[in-house]
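Lecture 7 notes: from sequence to structure.
We start with the chain below.
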Amino acid sequence: MRTSSIRLRANARLAILHEDFLEICDGNMLAAMLLSILVYWTDVKVAKKDENLWVWKSHEDFQEDLMFDKPGMKPPHRTTIKAALDLLVSKKFLQWRRNPKMPLDQTRQYLVEQETVQSAIDALSPIVVKPTMQSLIYDNATLESQQSLSENQQCNDEIPTSNTNDYSTEITNRDYDTEREGVADATAPAASSSFHFPQNDEERQQYDDFMCNAHKEVAKANNGTRHSKTIKATISKRTPAKKETPPAISAEAIRIMDAWDSIFSRKCTRTENHIKAAELLVPCAPTRDDLSNIRKFCYKSNPKWYNDKGVSLIDVAKNFDKWQSLQEAPQVSENNGHSPSSNGAKPRPSALVSEEQAAKNKARLYAAAAAKQAEKAGGQ
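Predicted structure tokens for the same chain:
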């Protein structure tokens, strides 16, 4: 019996679902598992040589056998279990009755119609097992060993003996069978051996060479009886993949990522997108305060989205231009566009514009005016 790699607790329950029961129950999983439970207890009674094969089960017993009593499991309703049992009764897989000795006992007793269940299973189509890589290699190795055996036997028959009077050249069927079994046992792989799937490029190359030789031996054994298209096997030589070295991270990008990490209590994982965002921010040379302000700007621009998803460095890189344009735009005072009152109140920090920025804004206005004059001149 195959043992499990996981050690389970003693007396742990087991819920079994047979594929055959699922098919004869028209895909009703609950009915198939209930049938498995009743068949199990029927087998227990048969093993004990009990003539009474009636099994009594309440709905609570079925729920316990199906482990619906565990926390988190939603037990099916009594009507659901009853519908599954009625399906088994309608297919004549079960019979049920009440306790004949105690009329007041409402617990049902069930009898599995073993012949009917067996007939339904026998009527199912056979299960076709798809060939696996292990079975393919085993078949190829067996064919190769049989072919080498026949070639060795042919060579032994063609070699003449030096003195036919001293040696008997007669080979009986018994000797040939014994020799054939010995060679087959020595060359054929054990049926219980496990197939080791290639893990690296060298093992994959060895596997490809083995399969190529196996296909050649099969084609040679067929002696051209099959069409060439059916036996032609082209196995490409795998070249080891070149490991791409990750691009070097610039010092400015590292500074930006360190500044971003300083905003939080723990460092962010430097993924590919995180590094890409830092590289995009290199021409802008943002400070820690800039990164913090852009992060706050993202929360204000779309609070519902960023409160759920959070703001990453790639979001900062995407919204940097929007934040910068708002910083460069002239701010309107709170007095309906007029100059601030001279009551000694200080202007807001957002309203302060540096001389360099003012020169840039002036140059943009002159460029826009020149472009408009050029358009008018071209239109005339």
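Points to note: Residues 251-328 form one domain. Confidence is low (pLDDT under 50) at residues 158-194, 227-236, 332-353.
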